[in-house]
Amino acid sequence: MGVIDDNLARAGLVIPTPAAPVANYVPAVLTGSLLVVSGQLCFQDGKLDPAHCGKLGEDVSIENGQAAARLCAVNLLAQAKAALDGDLDRVKRVVRLGGFINSAPDFNALPQVMNGASDLMVAAFGDAGRHARTTVGVAQLPMDCAVEVEAMFEVVR
Amino acid sequence: MGVIDDNLARAGLVIPTPAAPVANYVPAVLTGSLLVVSGQLCFQDGKLDPAHCGKLGEDVSIENGQAAARLCAVNLLAQAKAALDGDLDRVKRVVRLGGFINSAPDFNALPQVMNGASDLMVAAFGDAGRHARTTVGVAQLPMDCAVEVEAMFEVVR
Amino acid sequence: MGVIDDNLARAGLVIPTPAAPVANYVPAVLTGSLLVVSGQLCFQDGKLDPAHCGKLGEDVSIENGQAAARLCAVNLLAQAKAALDGDLDRVKRVVRLGGFINSAPDFNALPQVMNGASDLMVAAFGDAGRHARTTVGVAQLPMDCAVEVEAMFEVVR
């Protein structure tokens, strides 16, 4: 158990087995000191909770949106851990999160929703978890998920 | 003819002359070992096929969306080739594709559409073509294109 | 005053005090020679002009959209300047802008709007301001802003 695993355990979080990609792409690519992780959806135990599907401002409450964003972040950590041979302590910095919120045309409380993902990164990595971030509301997401989040990490090779 | 050009020729693909950007930006920027390529639209021979314009889930079939995504990928390769002095063998890895699908609010088969781009990268580069990927459905794209794809490559300088 | 500050002054531009992030993230992260800046909104003097809020193709004219994109670019420079200890001359290259336009489903003059941001980068940095760019129309943006722009710069550490 590394330091980051300990932090996550203290926050009551278990990193799940990462989801396999469903097409001709991979969950993460390491290039130089950057780990680029594919957009992750709000799956939990391989399933989508209906409460985490649909549009913010229409079907999904802000609280459920935040929970969905948090799940995306957990899945990003799962993919990063797998790409780093199981050692999240090799993460030096969360560089960037890109947050995509499935939004009704008039829903603009997007940052609050995305905080579900950002807060988890800071819970896991402390100050090294503070990242640059872009949050936008999109017309749709794969499988009608409420949230998708992608990430870039700086890592020790 | 390099190895990648051969792969593309075997797949029946000719890399077109890259499109000139229409404003104060450039098709691609090389920084360190990263080549960042601007979002490419589904132009073919300088024109947009009406079958590749409009929204998935409304005007555009999944098959036409896949063809549009493939064209975006071809145009990414054209820009990469131009930025690499004509030598696609300098690509070490396709690091990331970002796929934006012009989507009706209820269309969520976005990954299938994006596979048109991902499959082409693997046809061209083999395992080095397997990339991290983010796919989202957007409200609109330039010129009402059905698909836009951006890319990041790791290259030999 | 550096060279870039002079360029901006000649263009009649004063770089504002950067906005503080409103959640668990930071305005910019430096990793290697890359400076990754969070998506910036079209704030001016800490406020949003109602003319810069709403959707292109519905509430916001192309001219106001361009002005909003320009403000996002100014705010990106403010964040970059703060992250570089006040010295924009440390920017070697604007690598990439990602432009998100709050769009009605049928508005596709997105590149014209985004030019407001791109033109400012070239006014500031000359040829080093020419960047790779991706522009998409999204369903919503934080606080109903008309435009959000993110950036990646290559910098001298």
Description:
- The structure is a homotrimer of 157-residue chains.
- Chain A has 157 residues and is of the alpha+beta class.
- Chain A has a single domain, classed as 60s Ribosomal Protein L30, Chain: A, CATH 3.30.1330.40.
- Chain A contains 3 helices and 5 strands; from the N terminus they run H-E-E-H-E-H-E-E.
- Chain A has helices at residues 3-10, 62-83, 110-125, and strands at 28-31, 34-41, 91-102, 132-138, 147-155.
- A 5-stranded mixed β-sheet of chain A has the order 1-2-5-3-4.
- In chain A, helix 2 (62-83) runs parallel beside helix 3.
- The two termini of chain A are 19 Å apart.
- The interface between A and B is medium-sized, with 28 and 36 residues.
Short key terms for the protein model shown above:
homotrimer; 157 residues; alpha+beta; 60s Ribosomal Protein L30, Chain: A; five-stranded mixed sheet; 25% strand; globular
Give the spatial strand order of the biggest sheet of chain A.
Answer: 1-2-5-3-4
Largest sheet of chain A: 5 strands, mixed
Binned, the helix content of chain A reads: 25-40%
Count of helical segments of chain A? 3
